[in-house]
Structures are given as structure tokens and as C-alpha cells.
Amino acid sequence: MRHEYDYDKNTNGTSAIRVFLLTLSIILIVGIPSLFVIKRLGEHDDAGEVKLASGWEKIPEAGVVENVVVSEGEQAEEELIIPEEDKAYTHVIETSSDDSVTIGFAGDILFDDNYAVGNAFKNAGNSAEGVVSQSLLEKMRAADIMMVNNEFPYSYGGTPTEGKTYTFRARPETASILNEMGVDIVGLANNHAYDYGEQALLDTMDTLDSVSVTYAGAGNNIEEASHPVYYITSSGMRIAIICATQIERLDNPDTKGATESAPGVFRCLNDALLLQKVREAREKNAYVIVFIHWGTESTSEIDYLQVDQAKEIADAGANLIVGAHPHVLQKIDYVNGVPVIYSLGNYIFNSKTQDTGMILTTLHKDGVVNIQFVPAIQSGCSVYEPADDERLRILNEMAGMSPGITLDTNGYISMR
Fold this sequence. Notes:
By secondary structure, the chain is of the alpha/beta class.
């Protein structure tokens, strides 16, 4: 707010001195201690200066729907035009704000009660309460769209894949835990969705339908598996989510790829179809998110295929790339101006103690986008937000492995 003051000529000098002294006091009391906190967070070994998150990235094409028909009258209503080929894959949603939409992402989850973490959910009464901390549950539920990597099928049937070291399968009734966690959409394009074969994958899709959770990256055929899931807000913002996997990197993988006539997952080791889907979604004026299963397990180092495909996906028109599979956190970067979260690691997947987190992305109608990393710890079959010292440690470690970004003390990300 702009204030105008009318000073008498004889008081100008005294007022200026007072303002100077007040400003100096504020700097000494507030500013200098703050610099020490932020310097610790923003340091990078390869850079001599500290950079703070300077603001939110602005994406001019952040999803305001074109071809909107507005009726006449005081209570004008917008009619959203949805292409015929997208109607079965489109969800019109209400958001907590008319001017923005918030999309949350978390990494790998597991509900198989033959493993410790799945048994923790079972002992909690097929509930997330006490397994996922209350503060994280509140953030997940508050997101307008919440997505996780569903690293297993829901089924009582099927046969475990022969020769595979780890095969997962959860009871179908555990899918209700997703509702309790506030999950709206899951990624099925991963190397465990097919652990119990075709029947268990089909059961998984039916189970998710029964609890009103959308899935991406798998289907009864390649058209279903590769088709973007669209969300359109009542205020006219369009988001496209495309889910694909480049794991396993074999000509004949255990996890079957969908074909024109057979069910499976959307495989993108050859990413020609993935890039086509990205381009098509951008042509429809969507904010395009690619949720991709890639990388090498148990290492924070990204591999050459992640590097190659991140560039190709960004150049095809993606606005955001979010990765899973390594089971550990990997760096956050910008590739040709596109934010890439290479791996969100395990969210609640096993009993190991390790760092993890959530990504919260808020898109505003005017094109402004902000991205926040929310630190968390998975430990002892639970996941929770840590106290301030541990939270700052995780932020510092993420900043240290991510020289291409700046990260402030609240976890907000921007390009260096």
C-alpha cells in the first residue's frame, strides 16, 4: 500500500535521521541473524555466493483453458470444452482457491502386509493414522490433487513373477488407505505393478476404480496406459499428468508393456510415444506433468538415461518432471528451464530410516508457479515431518546435491 506524508520543511532532517536509525536497528536485530540461517542453507561447494529463492517461476501457459463459452447474464457460467478423446480421462474439480490449484507429489508407498511397513498399516486397522504423521496427512489432504507412486498391485489372485527377488501384492481392501491419505491419483507405471501378472494388474485397476482413485501409466491397452489424465478446475485451469516407466531396461521385461490389444504399463525406454503425448497435451494448453519411473536404485547419483530423457521430455513441452524408483532422494534441477525432481525416494515403503519428502506445486491463474519441497523422514514403518534442526539438515543436503537451484528455509525452489 502506498502512503503519502506531508512534512514541514523544518522537520525533514530530523525525520530522515529517525528513519535511518530505525532502519539500521531493524537490520542489526533481524537481518544479520537471518543471513546466517540462509547462508547455511544456500551454500554450494562450487559457488562463491549465496543465492536465495528469488520468487516463483512464471509459466505463461500454465493451463488457462481456451475455447470457453460464457453464457449471458449476471450469473455467467463457463462451459468447459473437453475434446471427445479426452472425456473418459478428464476430471473437473473444485479447488480450495478460485485463483490457484495445488498439486502434491510423494514417492513410493507399499501396503503389502507380508512386509513390515504393510503390516504397520494392517496393525493400524488398515489406516494411515499413526503411520503417516498428522501434519503430513493434513498437507496431503489439503492438496487439490495428490499423487503417489503405487509400487504394487491390489489383488488376491495372480502368480508371482518367477525369478524376481521382490514381488509385492496388497489386499484390495487396503486401497481405502489412499482415501484416508487424501490421494487422488496414483502412478502404476513402475516395475512392480505387474508382480503377480496380468490378472493382478486388472484387479488393481478395478480396485482403484472402486475407491474413486484415478490411475495413470497402466491400462487395458496402450491407448489407455499412455493417455494423459486431465484435471480442469472450475475456474478453467487445465493440468495433464502422464505416467511412464523406463524400468526394467530389457527387451523382454518382467513388467509387461501395454500393447494395442493387451494390458500392461506405459513403457518409455523408447520414449517416442511419451514425447508425442507431451506435445499433444501442450497443444491443448495444459500444464503438463510427467511422472516417470527411472534411475538407478539406492544411489543419489542420476544416470545417463535420466539425463537424456529429462532433456527430451522438457524439450517436448513438459512443465514439470517428477521421478521415482531409486528409493532415495536425488537432486532437483532445471533442464532447459523445466523443474525436474529426479527422485522423491521412499515415502512410506519400508522400515529403514531415511530422508524423504513431498513436493507441493501451486499453479496460479495468472501463470505464476511455485514449487515447495517439504522435508520428511521415513523411519520404523512411519513417515513424519522432523523438528527444525533435522528439517534444516535435510534442506541443506538437498541444496548441496542440487547446485542448479536455490532453496530457501521454507523449502521453496527456484532456478539459480
